[in-house]
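anyone seen this seq b4? input:
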Amino acid sequence: MDNNKEKFEYTYSAKRQDEIEKIRKKYMPKEEDKMELLRKLDRDVTKPGTLWSLILGIAGCLLLGIGMCCTMLWADSFFVLGIVVGILGMVVIGMAYPVYVRITKKQREKLAPRILELTEELSK
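predicted toks r here
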């Protein structure tokens, strides 16, 4: 009687199976998950406002810095110009938050119907 025919060998590697599953998921067609879509829409509400407020904030800080340089380093020739540029920079910095609020409000109004529709579907 041959004992080799009755043997059963099985090797399982959790890491290997996880890696195989990750690679497989990359190539599978994406299923539309309504919760993920809701999260994406919620993120999309604030993205444009955040982008524009960052642009304004950074530009305002640069203008303020240029104004400070003009008043401190070249005080004899660019003092008044430095004050004007610095004040302009402060105004631009001050505009960053209101621009964020305004753009975010418009995005909320634009995406609200779809978000409310998804929340109703997911609540059932």
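Residues 1 and 7 are 13 Å apart (CA to CA). The mean pLDDT is 89. kinda curious what u guys think
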